[in-house]
Specification:
Layout lengths: L1 E5 L12 H15 L3 E4 L12 H23 L9 E7 L8 H8 L3 E6 L11 H13 L2 E4 L5 H7 L5 E4 L17 H8 L6 E6 L6 H13 L7 E6 L5 H8 L7 E5 L3 H9 L3 E4 L8 H8 L4 E4 L14 E4 L4 H12 L2 H18 L2 H20 L1
Parallel strand pairs: 1-2, 1-3, 3-4, 4-5, 5-6, 7-8, 7-10, 8-9, 10-11, 11-12
Amino acid sequence: MNIAFYAPLKPPDHPNPSGDRRLARLFVDALRMADHRVTLASRFRTWDGLGNVQRQMRLARIGKRIAARLVRRIEQLPRQEVPDIWFTYHLYHKAPDWLGPYVTAKVGIPYVIAEASFAPKQAGGPWDTGHRAVKDALSRADAVLLLNPDDAECLARLLPEGQRLAQFPPFLDVDGFLHGSPSDRPSARLGMGLPLDEICLVAVGMMRVGDKLDSYRLLGEGLRKVLNLPWRLLVVGDGVARRQVEEALAPLGAERVRFLGRLGGIRLAEVLRASDIMVWPAINEAFGMALLEGQAASLPVVAGDSRGVRAVVSHGRTGLLTAPGNAAQFADAVRALIEDPVRRRALGEAAHAQVVARHDLKRASRSLDRILVQIAHQARG
């Protein structure tokens, strides 16, 4: 099938990396793996982070003009090139979809949304324009793929009767990450010049003001409580708040912390292979792609139990989840895994197994294909 793909928050070819861009690319990969022809419908970004009503209205007007142009363009395509389905990834009140509802209604093709959130408390607030646009888009969608279970309650109340709301766990390409084990780690450590007699903690997160910086600050506060134990911290990430992150982690000591910058692919996999525990407070994290990557590399996770994190980390089975914002609990969980190598290894092995079983790209591709084929069949009927 021909799939028109659109990501209003950040297109998959955007130059700035993030978990959102990563998952957008993975959805494109999953669609292509199922032999669908994917075309990027538009790079139009609708994000407004400040609650500026005038900006939102301007984006709405631009979106309507772009949508009208897309309709005219589609109407001129040969039949075999016309999209069979419009697929929008990630919309919420700060980044609504001004294109998909209009185009699909005019062209007469199904409209599918993956990763949507709807917060009734935004009604009448600074993002009311985007909030109402999300409500309209969801009411028109033929199916909504739910990545974060925390969004289920609000979405279920909003969607019309009979509209499909499908659980769809976040996913990644497990083959892109080495299945590390304790026996592999000495060679990986030596390659990075790390001591063999200390536990390697790893934190992966963009360095930007807001929840990410707050997570780094809580990480520093928590790890200060376990300075009596032998560990090193590897930090993967970069961004405009790099200086503030360095300040937050400075009390841990320069000899304890190594900043590795922005990494991906094989280089990130090598760092994870050299590590023992992934640590991330995950303040207001939707689910955290990095947490999936760490578990794919057989690392147990210590994370804050915020929003959708429990959808990818099973407390007591693949890691330990602590109360959001509680540095003391976070420190206790880190201490527990540092001091118990048997439990640490068991959690890591279970983490890898769970990612393979529930969150692998190949599985997601098959599930996505089944959903889209059924929707297209219903539309033709």
